[in-house]
Amino acid sequence: MEEAIKQIGERLKGLREVLDIPAQDLADTCGITLDKYMKIESGEVDITISNIMKIAKKYGVSADAIMFAEEPRMRSYYVVRKGHGLSVERTKAYKYQSLASGFTDRKAEVFIVTVEPKPSAHTIYKNTHPGQEFNLILEGAMELYLNGKTIVLEEGDSIYFDSTKPHGMKAIGKQPVRFLAFTVE
């Protein structure tokens, strides 16, 4: 997983160099400091999926190219067999498996996200991104922090929300939570 974070950082650095983009512009796109952005490029710090999508949209590249070093090619349909979607473990706690990565010019991002439980004192990172998001809990349970509210979701529960509002989550209980995450602008 640390290797995946380093590889994403290397791809971001390569994108910046090829397109001759100042690092400050990418930091501004993500809404973070230049120092934090440079730590992302060096693989010291992880980058959020929403920031990857912001960069991809602004600079006309696919989020898949940044995350997986793969370009989507399918235009009619794209099948992902059970357990075979492109995946990246960005931290010890989060694993993203893309269910749409091979479909070009898609309008939505679809992932199965697996999150390991953390100690109850663990700080929840709040995120925002354009559009809307749908989450369906497949296994386990999570607390979703959404715009100042805490919502507990268990297996079979779902939520659809405005993702421009600050949101974050954590697995609760002793087992990981697995959920389908669908985002669209």
Explain the overall architecture.
With 185 residues, the chain is of the alpha+beta class. 28% of the residues lie in helices and 30% in strands. It is built from five helices and nine strands. The protein has helices at residues 2-19, 23-30, 34-41, 49-59, 63-68; strands at residues 87-89, 94-98, 108-115, 132-139, 141-146, 149-154, 158-162, 167-172, 177-184. The strands form two sheets. It has a six-stranded antiparallel sheet with strand order 1-2-3-9-4-7. Strands 6-5-8 form a three-stranded antiparallel sheet, with no helix packed on it. α2 (23-30) packs across α3. The chain is globular and about 45 Å long.
Give a quick summary of the entry.
This protein has helices at residues 2-19, 23-30, 34-41, 49-59, 63-68; strands spanning 87-89, 94-98, 108-115, 132-139, 141-146, 149-154, 158-162, 167-172, 177-184. With 185 residues, the chain is an alpha+beta fold.
| Total beta-strand segments | 9
Number of helices: 5
What strand line-up does the widest sheet have? 1-2-3-9-4-7
Q: Which regions have little confidence, pLDDT < 50, spanning 5+ residues?
A: none
Overall pLDDT: 85
Estimate the global geometry from the Cα principal axes: globular
Rg over C-alpha atoms, rounded to the nearest angstrom: 16 Å
Largest β sheet strand count, sense and barrel closure: 6 strands, antiparallel
Class inferred from helices and paired strands: alpha+beta
How do the SSEs run, as a string of H and E?
HHHHHEEEEEEEEE
Oligomer: single chain
Q: State the helicity in percent bands.
A: 25-40%
Question: Strand fraction band?
Answer: 25-35%
End-to-end span in angstroms?
A: 28 Å
